[in-house]
Design goal:
Four copies of one chain form a homotetramer. The first copy, chain A, contains ten helices and 17 strands. With about 375 residues, chain A is α/β, with parallel strands linked by helices. The first copy, chain A, folds into two domains: about 5-130, Rossmann fold, CATH 3.40.50; about 135-375, Dihydrodipicolinate Reductase, domain 2, CATH 3.30.360. In chain A, strands 16-15-14-13-7-12-11-8-17 form a nine-stranded mixed β-sheet. Chain A has a six-stranded parallel β-sheet with strand order 3-2-1-4-5-6, with helices on both faces. In chain A, α4 runs parallel beside α5 and α8 crosses α10. The two termini of chain A are about 40 Å apart.
Chain lengths: ~375, ~375, ~375, ~375
């Protein structure tokens, strides 16, 4: 079997999630390539070496440009913070590497457009790690929609609620906290959390035409880890928006890091003419499904325990009733991506798919400024 | 419309529940009789008068024999403690009154047999207030079983869990606490709580052949309210038993007043070849239903919100989505009983039905003594 | 005890709910007045007589002006459709009657202002039947907020989802369907359902400063029952809006009659600095509560079964674990209102409180037209 | 770091679960040894080679005696069917190997005793894969009990419900179906499923004194895969038993493969004087906890989402809110076992711990025969 050599840039939370996926996928899926963890790249050589030792990367680099220059790297996985996605991805595309880029694609649509142009020009396989599409319950939702079970869609609603930044003494910036630093992250919950909700929504329910948003920064100033000074907080702590999809359905989206009791509660619900679907990340192995065509007296929301062999991806894992978790969504993405590479077919979400999410984020952030409905830029 | 004059004996918790049912039923159901609350009877005249004033009883009695002797009483409702059920009911039957008797029918099967003989000899309409049969979700369960949705039954399990007697300083005996006094109550959780579970089970799943039980009294001595002395506790604080139904299904039953966190958690589940059903009293307006014949990927437990017009009894109440509560089960029992009286048809649970429950209780308590499987006496 | 004579105008769904409350409240609550159901008024005399017979009203009227002219009426209960609230209420105030008016107060803030002026000028006790405030779990939420358990509030979100108008063959207008006729109802889900959400929100979380809304009418034309012709549908089938409260918290509100699987799912959630609260009408006897100050490893959302004696109103009903339902919220409102009357204290929601809800509705409907943030008119 | 060479016997469902654990554990836990997958052993060489290739075992064996004879094997992992556990484990102990044995320890207590003697005589580290102890929520339950949060224990109840053998056309015997063949499995649900429940119970609640059981075989005959003939089914399809623990608490246990709607619903609940705990495998990442010492009006069952860094094992995985699954319990067991080996400390469940479970199973199966209470043999 042909090998496929991976070079990873970054080694944080996502570096672990992706490495685990690369390590694990071949034990459960029949892959068209044998994955080799060739190199990991990070500015801090010591940390890079420790990470390489733990995960079995064959070598380390401290300059991503050197990594991209290596001929023995087939696929570049970008796990660095948002502000360097564009530069690295464009260079990687020019170097002819396949690219798996952590979400969001970029800080803005403008950055993203350059990235899309680069991968399209280079003709390299590319994907963005919007992993939640590949939670089996979410994939099942997509199947049910594609089968036409819901009929005309009236409503879509999604939320991503967290509570980890309520403490005003939490600083911003630096490792682990760059998500609070607007210069690095680009935005707050919009790019970090709503981007996930938007990606799923575009996949399940099609394009968004226009949005009307509000944002808030509850804690206005935080000490910056790098400068050591109290600085204005530039990110959005919370964001909610109304939306209209091209299919005529209405939507509400909301995200915050100030919702006590919710650690990572991503939830969506879709109401169609015939049936409705709901899902949440805190019980990710279940899909809630209501079908009005069920006989009347026994009609009810069904709690589907998505662990059967006939459910998406689940035949590869254990037996009915035994749950998989968060990390498996990354495994599925690697499996699907490599299959697509082997077959020469794009596998969503591609950079282009992710650009559409970026356009929605841009419109959301703009609307929060203007206080008006803003149109979402159409993907060409 | 013909009137039907009610005479109630007792004025405690159940006196309120029944009075509310009598008062309310005519506003929502089309009855064959106009109910008149003619008299309430209690030894304490002052309390009887207060109760009569609040609920609109036309008169009071302090001697139940006088109540039974009154010609203007058509129906006697027995809400007195268990130890006087038999004597009153037998006298009421002899006096030709219709009888609604609070559960359990009696303290023992032997007492119950005399009661059944009395009502059958007198030919008077009779029922026992096993009200949970008429929670709409429970009635729906019965319908689904009768429609054959479950197929062959493999398992039945029921529990009734409470936590109100954990405190060892709680005394026994007297008003409100006679349930802890074995002389008055006859038994502890077996007659008080398991009797409910058994009544439902016999109704839904047919006869029980044999049982194997254990009981426990966790708090061995409690001060007696009437004697003022610390006395041995004679009731069962907890009881669990295995059972085999005549239809070949296996069952577990359990009840206790020592289960922290459960106030009145009566729950049952039935597993059949094709479908399963589960219900609990803490969310009494829902029925859980799993049908294996549903299409595979969307199979799941359905949470049926039993509030639609086509659900049992619900067309009489509000609109879909708006729940009724505990008290309504009593209203339904009055409505059904009066309809049966008008049509000359017995309405379950009759005294005879309740005697079967008593036989199971007897076998349970005997098995707890012998440590062996005990056969349940067959109803003639 | 002094009697209090009730005259009811209307006999539909709400006529039943209110009559049941008047009939029942004295059995469970110690009231300062003895309620007498003196008269019911409806244009259709036959139906009025049938209603009077069922509920025990002493007399009937077919002209509400005659009812108001009667000296033996102390309290007028307005259950007629929205378009006549103002006229009747203003006349009732002038006639010196106490007024209980079904929600929403009026079709518009302008109408509502006249009503408020009328009752204030007349000095008559008044209330609007926003009954959900008095579901015990909702009242408990209010208590927890008033005790300061949540700390600074960051988020409020509410939804009221139904699915009963999805069928495009459902006509508009006439008895039972006047809620779909804009001329009678004034608006669709905004006045019918969101008004409930707004009333609760103002009570729990204070004033709303501004809103940004969208509405949609999914079924554009429906046959009109009265005209027999297909007519344009003027109501909003769905409405969602963003809001900012005066306390700095952000909110999302949504209502629709096109959400498959939801019959009457009113739900709200509040996220505070220390704790969060959530409730929904489909399981109205439970309150979800998360307190971050709980010890770390055992922190979790608590499902409070609001049936204990120490919970609001519950000492009046049954015993712990035994649920009450939808109808009881009306009973509580009568009890509280009469207590207020006896003490000479206003009991919320007064007409003035309900006017604030109307102002929010007005701003919502206006914003749906302008596509901009609209300020909510301040209550004087 | 010192290496630790693993030799695995068997390659089925559990072979995969264990191999995944060995492969994965070092990426997330800091281990005292570097695990090397040295050899896998199976009678079918082709399948063994395929398994070795997929999981990276360095070599294959087709005779387990040869595997035990190899000097380069430090740890033997027994994943073969129940009927060969004893022979292999005893030989492995004699060969001085550390042993990880799949549950149940053996088919009977008598077999198990020999195994315990063998490992104790040899002084080799040993454990049995009762993996559910190391689901973080279950481990948290153990912590809470050890902290004394529950106080005196009154009740324990456990169930393990499945529905995969309802179809009477399912054959018995052979790969994947040896669990239905009594000669290989030893028993049905008792050894397969109840053994899990008993292991957890002994760990959480101490010794069981006596039991009273019933078993049933619903499908009496099934075609045997190996013989090709219809043969009597010797296993128990369902088993329920009453139990009394040494600490005075009462218990009910039940298991079946005939409970429609339940795939692998292992659930337990413990009721103590002060607090109660409940858990189920279908939502394995949650622990339900009720603490009566919470303030009254806000007392309720807490749904603890066991995904925080301070929860057992969770600091090693992702971030709060992101669930792990079934497979991770095996990873935890490897990590704990190796730590114990390095420190020279036994890590439960040892063979001796598992023998106690076997004794309970023996008493259960005997009681099902005798219809009486049977004492559980005491562990020396």
């Amino acid at each position: 079997m042909k090998t496929l050599n991976v070079g990873m840039i970054g080694y944080g939370f996502m570096g672990r999630a992706h490495s685990n996926a690369f390590r694990k996928v071949g034990h459960f899926f029949d892959l068209p390539y044998q994955i080799v963890l060739k190199a990991v790249c990070a500015r801090n050589e010591e940390k890079a070496r420790a990470f390489a030792a733990r995960w079995g990367y064959e070598s380390v680099e401290t300059d991503w440009k050197k990594l991209l220059a290596r001929e023995d790297i087939d696929l570049v996985d970008i796990c660095a913070p948002n502000d360097v996605h564009a530069e690295i991805a464009i260079a990687a595309a020019r170097a002819g590497k396949m690219i798996m880029c952590e979400k969001p694609l970029a800080r803005t649509g403008a950055e993203g457009e350059k990235m899309v142009r680069a991968v399209e020009k280079a003709g390299v396989p590319n994907t963005v790690w919007y992993n939640y599409r590949r939670i089996p319950a979410v994939t099942l939702a997509k199947q049910l929609i594609d089968e036409g079970r819901l009929g005309r869609i009236f409503h879509y609603r999604a939320k991503f609620l967290q509570d980890w930044t309520i403490n005003p003494d939490l600083p911003q910036g630096g490792t682990g906290l760059w998500r609070l630093d607007v210069k690095v992250a680009g935005s707050g919950v919009t790019g970090d959390l709503l981007a996930h909700c938007i990606d799923t929504a575009l996949w399940l329910n099609g394009s968004v035409d226009r949005v009307n948003a509000m944002t808030e920064t509850f804690v206005k100033e935080r000490k910056h880890v790098l400068s050591g000074k109290v600085e204005k907080v530039g990110i959005d702590d919370a964001c909610a928006f109304l939306a209209r999809f091209s299919n005529g359905s209405l939507a509400t989206f909301e995200s915050t890091r100030y919702a006590r009791g919710h650690k990572a509660l991503y939830t969506f619900e879709i109401n169609g003419e015939h049936a409705s679907i709901a899902w949440d990340l805190h019980d990710l192995h279940r899909l809630q499904y209501f079908d009005h065509r069920d006989q009347g007296t026994t009609r009810g929301w069904r709690s589907i325990h998505v662990t059967d062999g006939e459910h998406p991806y689940m035949a590869k894992w254990w037996v009915p009733g035994l749950a998989i978790g968060y990390e498996h969504s990354f495994v599925h993405q690697v499996a699907d991506f490599l299959q697509g590479v082997a077959e020469g077919k794009p596998v969503g979400p591609t950079f282009k798919d992710a650009l559409e999410t970026q356009y929605v984020c841009d419109a959301v952030l703009k609307s929060a400024q203007t206080g008006k409905w803003e149109k979402v830029k159409k993907i060409r």
